[in-house]
Amino acid sequence: MIGVGIRGVTKSYGALPILRGIDLTIDPGEFVVLLGPSGCGKSTLLNIVAGLEPLDDGAIEIAGEDMTHADPSKRHLAMVFQSYALFPTMSVRQNLGFGMRINRVPKAEIVRRVQSVAALLQIEPLLDRKPAQLSGGQRQRVAIGRALVRSTRLCLFDEPLSNLDAQLRADMRVELRRLHADLGSTMIYVTHDQVEAMTLASRVAVINRGKVEQVDTPQKVYDRPATLFVARFVGSPAINLLEGVLMADRRFRSATGATVDLSGYAFASTPRPGTEVVLGVRPDDVRVAEAPARRGDALSAVPAFTESLGPRSLLWLELDGQRWSMYVDAKGGAIPTGPFEPGFDAADASLFDKTTGVRL
């Protein structure tokens, strides 16, 4: 297994900065997902790790060696692209063995590795077919297999599932998790799909405008987003947000005067009273208040419409001029039809400085 160190990497295209001092350590055997919107720099960073693009400043370490300016062939890695990049006139068997033939690997070794990877990916019946005779999911397995036959301990994936339909993406996520568990290789995976990030990653690095905003386990990124950007980007449906100010008694007050007791919230550092903040609550954590405060300044929500999701329904609300959502039990649960007070535990909420966007 190979570890990767990304040290202060910067990259610009002319006057346009793409990466702004990226620092990231990937331990041997980790599955790290680089998650972010289109244009945030995640694919550029992956290409720099692979040696396909030069960096402006910083360093890349692979297995403890400085590989900043090393040729891609010297970096002991394999890469899987979004476009599959299979040779259309070659069979699956020939596609899998092409790189080894170029490197003059003995024929017997090529046969052994191709058979081994084909068995691992369950594509043995496809070995004599051409890419045009394969489905999208089968082509993606071949593309992954072509990387694996190199027996590399570091694999890079650049949005490999984005061309597949929803069911195939779900199936391939399971395959990738199984492959990682079986091989133990270090994997770096680029995507803008948060479902892929949450289901695949050991850790997620959320990137925004060329900077890493948070690196943590998928669950912690979801439960305790480090910035307002991370809170908004991760989660579907999106996190519920409400702007306001923090009062001296640790109460949140919205622009309309509604207040929320945040005495149970774990502040990283206590901000001064009057600080403009943004309160965030995941739809999973909102409920109908069991003991309504019956105060004139309590939050009040009005149901707008409901989306049926099978065992649960998603209830959309109008709250303090904002659109919020919450889950309700579709089987026997009471779905509010009139104004009600939404409840949630302060410990489950997130609070951000409105100016900096940093979690408080």
Structure, explained:
By secondary structure, the protein is α+β, with helices and mostly antiparallel strands. 24% of the residues lie in helices and 31% in strands. Strand 11 and strand 12 form a beta hairpin. Helix 2 packs across helix 3 and helix 3 crosses helix 4. The protein starts with a strand and ends in a 7-residue tail after the last strand.
Features:
alpha+beta; single chain; 2 domains; five-stranded antiparallel beta sheet; 360 residues
Brief write-up:
With 360 residues, the protein is α+β, with helices and mostly antiparallel strands.
Average pLDDT level: 90
Helix and strand sequence: EEEHEEEHHHEHEHEEHHEEEEEEEEEE
Q: CATH homologous superfamily of the largest domain - what is it?
A: P-loop containing nucleotide triphosphate hydrolases
CATH class of the largest domain: Alpha Beta
The radius of gyration computed from the alpha-carbon positions, rounded to a whole number of angstroms, is 25 Å
Shape: elongated
> What would CATH call the architecture of the largest domain?
3-Layer(aba) Sandwich
The structural class is: alpha+beta
Work out the helicity level. 10-25%
- Read across the widest sheet, the strand sequence of neighbours is 6-7-8-3-9-10
What does the main sheet amount to? 6 strands, mixed
The proportion of residues in beta strands is: 25-35%
The tally of strands reads 20
Protein name: ABC transporter ATP-binding protein
Keywords: ATP-binding, Nucleotide-binding
